[in-house]
């Protein structure tokens, strides 16, 4: 009864403001819609992200969104962190009813708000008119649409939509509201609209529906950041990247981007199951991944499943050069670098730990000094006390006891000595 009262009171308090930091939020997150940030005080990224989280809360409130925003300190509420299996920081989760959804996109206000609006509403939304269909197409680069009436395929579609709603949009529509350019051979059908065209799902050719959606949920060619690159590890695809400097574009950068985009369009059917194409602005993330530095612009193929990569051995000038490089990666003739072997894994862990420590000192120097200085100070103190300790004298006589005469090297009693070290005479002994 007491817990119920506390929960109700907490709900009332939290509803008064859109941004909350409450230890009981997780109780009623199952009854309301919430975005919660799980953080730790020592996490530099959490401190950087906190102002963005406040902006998200303020904008959602101004939009009249039913989604509340809050945060939980996992160093204080360790049981909550354990229950939700929190491993990295900051971790962002959206709670809707008895479901929870992990946010793995860019840590920007617009991206989080888009995720919130997409996930907090119905998993699959109906498109009831041509105008509504056109409106959705003008606002989203990629959508999935189920066309037709009730069927077993529709049930599979809803199940897959629940799994992938965190990544993209799902709709239903009738044949009448589709663009005239869409031609269906059979109904019901599932289509993905992207890259200015559409592709139909074929159960015989494409196999499992969830697998097909996971493969098609990215545009054929787009700007890839560290968050979307991380998601590529879930796919069985290689990632072909043109790494360029968008702030200082060069002729070589433009050529690499053009070749990659052209390849993704003209050879889509040939490479759709093997490659994801894109470009990345800046080489900071790639340098951290390969634990080295490559001068921009350059082309690289990444295998995110094993953290491996391949670099072309010669300069890429034409689309034929790029095709030869991609084919050499597929047939195994290109040299595979990196990987997740023991040595590489150890180096990567060390690199990550070093970058984390550096970022901690940059964000919170005094707190970081305390965190690292306290255990070091304790260890130094223990070592100093151990080295300077005086050993106990096990032969020390008890009070009131007579000390035993010392023995010489042969086990005989040593001669009694005067204070000045001279042996007593026989007369002196008699006197004694």
Automatic annotation (TrEMBL):
Top-rank taxon: Eukaryota
Compartment(s) of residence: Endoplasmic reticulum membrane
Region Disordered: start-end pairs: 394-432
Pfam families, per database record: Thioredoxin (PF00085), Thioredoxin_6 (PF13848)
One function term, GO molecular function aspect: protein disulfide isomerase activity
TM ranges: 363-384
Gene Ontology CC: cell surface; endoplasmic reticulum membrane
PROSITE patterns for the chain: THIOREDOXIN_1, THIOREDOXIN_2
EC number of this enzyme: 5.3.4.1
Domain named Thioredoxin: residues: 1-121
Biased composition (Basic and acidic residues): 409-432
Record's keyword terms, sorted: Membrane, Transmembrane, Transmembrane helix
UniProt cross-references to Gene3D superfamilies, sorted A to Z: Glutaredoxin (3.40.30.10)
Reaction it catalyzes: Catalyzes the rearrangement of -S-S- bonds in proteins
Membrane topology, record value: Single-pass membrane protein
Free-text function comment from the UniProt entry: Probable disulfide isomerase, which participates in the folding of proteins containing disulfide bonds. May act as a dithiol oxidase. Acts as a regulator of endoplasmic reticulum-mitochondria contact sites via its ability to regulate redox signals.
Record's protein name: protein disulfide-isomerase
Gene assigned in the entry: tmx3a
